[in-house]
Amino acid sequence: MPSSKATDAAPTSSALSAATAASAEPVHKRSKTRRAIQRTKRLDIRLKRVYDAPDPADGQRVLADRLWPRGLAKAKANIDFWAKDVTPSTALRQWFHQHPEQFDEFRQRFLDELALLDADRNAMLADLRERLATGPVTLLTAAHRLEDDDTHTHLHVLRDFLESH
């Protein structure tokens, strides 16, 4: 006599597809939630002078100056990436050096330049974003008095741009 347990234990194909569909839905919802969390996660971007000693907490050290810092040997710089294309253009940099009191105007002009780079899918900007996705990044500059609260540099603008896009 055939056992009723064998027929009762074997699920039908419709029962399998219903169970698969039910378990697939929460996975899909979880992946959407995970992506939303990743988008809202604040990036770990630090600002530092390139002449300051490296720290293990720096993560990847990215030089964000168009010109190489004076007196700093490339072999001793401890720089992981030189992002010179995501810095203010030469004309904008020179204008700001002549008008340091007009930081708000400089900020807007630099944001406009960054938006154009972003629209053109700039490879250096994409590389910088990939580095930010993997952990902390310290943006480095040769600018003086970076640590002063009232001092503003292009690094402040670049950090704000990266965090908002």
Automatic annotation (TrEMBL):
Where would one find the signal peptide in this protein? none
Compositional bias per record (Low complexity), positions renumbered to this chain: 1-24
What domain of life?
A: Bacteria
Species of origin? Pandoraea anhela
> PANTHER family in the record, alphabetically?
CYTOPLASMIC PROTEIN, CYTOPLASMIC PROTEIN-RELATED
Q: Which protein is depicted?
A: MarR family transcriptional regulator
Q: Where is this region: Disordered?
A: 1-35
